Amino acid sequence: MTASDDLEDWAGYGFSAELVRALFHGLRVGLYVVDHTGKILLVNPYAERLLDRPARQMLGADAHDLLHRNADGSPVPREDCQILAAFSEGVYVRSDELWSTRGSGGMVPLGVMVAPLPLGGGKDMGSVVLFYDLSRHKAVEHKQAAALAALKKLTDRLSLMAETSTVLASTLKVDEALRRLSHLLVPRLADWAMIDLLSPNGDGVDRVAVVVKQGQSGIEYKQWEGPLPAFPETSQAPMARVLRGGPAVLFGPKDLAERIDPEEYNVQRRRPYDELGAHSVIIAPLRTPRRVLGALILARYETSPVYDSADLSLVGDIASRAGLAVDNADMFKEQRRFASSTSHELRTPLAGLRARLEEAMLYPADVDPHETIREALAVTERLETIVDDLLVLARLRAGGPAAYEPIDVGALVAKEVAAMAGGVPVHVDAGRDVNVLGNRIQLIRVIDNLLVNARRHADKRVEVTVGRVEGSAAITVCDDGAGIAPQDRERVFERFVRLDEGRRREPGGSGLGLAISRDIAHAHNGTLTIEDSPRGARFVLRLPLTDRHP
């Protein structure tokens, strides 16, 4: 069959007028015909719908100028357009993705096939273009790409968490473990990182690691490490709230300058922000179920993506793992010191008891049995006290659950003082409604320890005050005795440490009372310290206030 044959002659090929009409009007693929210059000669109705243009707007127009575009909507240079080249050269072309404008102003991705088409009895060469909408295919591709990206991100984060655990378990040296963690996070998750640890008594902060991105790794800024002053108890600075037990916080570009308040940060605290810059920051607590140990600070420059809620969750998990690692390392060191000091404290009275009993057996005629038994009972009583106190310490440091309730500490102190008989008088000045959330038995133990200790060292009087100070409940116990030298004010909270004056006044003490008291304070997210006083010793117990009433 040739182009000059009549339609009736096409019947042998299966053609009919109905089929031609169905092919033209019902074909679910766009179709247009162009001459060798690219001028549109014919379009089908589906092309009108797909391109959102009426046929009259397309007929006679240059197909390239009217329709062909890059994915971003910019014009395609004529010399770079493979479809236009196919028109002029009369060759077959197929493209899996080309972009076209729509009459509404939007863009549509198309799959396109171009085939040469003889026109005018074969004298001129044109082309027929078939095209279909790739939008659904693109949507599926985007979904698949998004799913793959999410899977890769999840895999990367799981890998980072695994590496975090490995790094933190690689050494029991806390500072070294935290430096290694900082190097892991920079530049993988941050452009710079810092880690601050609270001092044991909570009155200061030690910056133990600062790592800054340099190329594909990080370098340490040791000159920025070292002790930092504590925030005021009333400070609402984000870092202060995190160190007091608040949740991890995220700062974006808009609120970073406002919320990192220069007035709340000294020069050393602000130096990384001022000298390195930050476009997005996360501050997360190094937390355990028992306490907050410090904070992890990660920052990104303006050239890096802004942190989002997923990053906040990830960094919070990393900081929690770091907190547990620090706590475990501290507990390991504590256990070693505990075993050493306990064996010494138990061995000494046991050795004396053994020597006394052996003497009684070897020289029965020279030893008073009743006196030997009394001495043995005294040693046994002291050993029993030590063991009981050690059990209390072990329970506190294990962080086991305790029943907490709202307690009026002013009323509690007054009740404990009233129950004391004889001895040095105690004067109480207790404010009303100074309420804390705590374990009653544990707080009674702290108060009794402080009262007994103060009366033991006082000359004539003990003063106790209870009130609200800088947002906390403050219980202050002062005596008028010899006091405690500044260099000994932390030592007395260590296990089995007893100053000479204490040994003289109470030879049989265990040396664990103040250690237990401080651990109870820490278990209640509080502090127990010794402060300056004109005369005698001044112990201050600070506990978080609660709005709940007993």
Automatic annotation (TrEMBL):
<keyword id="KW-0597">Phosphoprotein</keyword>
<dbReference type="Pfam" id="PF00512">
    <property type="entry name" value="HisKA"/>
</dbReference>
<keyword id="KW-0418">Kinase</keyword>
<dbReference type="InterPro" id="IPR029016">
    <property type="entry name" value="GAF-like_dom_sf"/>
</dbReference>
<feature type="domain" description="Histidine kinase">
    <location>
        <begin position="341"/>
        <end position="547"/>
    </location>
</feature>
<dbReference type="InterPro" id="IPR004358">
    <property type="entry name" value="Sig_transdc_His_kin-like_C"/>
</dbReference>
<dbReference type="Pfam" id="PF01590">
    <property type="entry name" value="GAF"/>
</dbReference>
<dbReference type="InterPro" id="IPR036890">
    <property type="entry name" value="HATPase_C_sf"/>
</dbReference>
<dbReference type="InterPro" id="IPR036097">
    <property type="entry name" value="HisK_dim/P_sf"/>
</dbReference>
<dbReference type="Pfam" id="PF13426">
    <property type="entry name" value="PAS_9"/>
</dbReference>
<dbReference type="InterPro" id="IPR003661">
    <property type="entry name" value="HisK_dim/P_dom"/>
</dbReference>
<protein>
    <recommendedName>
        <fullName>histidine kinase</fullName>
        <ecNumber>2.7.13.3</ecNumber>
    </recommendedName>
</protein>
<dbReference type="InterPro" id="IPR003594">
    <property type="entry name" value="HATPase_dom"/>
</dbReference>
<keyword id="KW-0808">Transferase</keyword>
<dbReference type="Pfam" id="PF02518">
    <property type="entry name" value="HATPase_c"/>
</dbReference>
<dbReference type="InterPro" id="IPR003018">
    <property type="entry name" value="GAF"/>
</dbReference>
<dbReference type="InterPro" id="IPR005467">
    <property type="entry name" value="His_kinase_dom"/>
</dbReference>
<dbReference type="InterPro" id="IPR035965">
    <property type="entry name" value="PAS-like_dom_sf"/>
</dbReference>
<dbReference type="InterPro" id="IPR000014">
    <property type="entry name" value="PAS"/>
</dbReference>
<feature type="domain" description="PAS">
    <location>
        <begin position="16"/>
        <end position="68"/>
    </location>
</feature>
<keyword id="KW-0902">Two-component regulatory system</keyword>
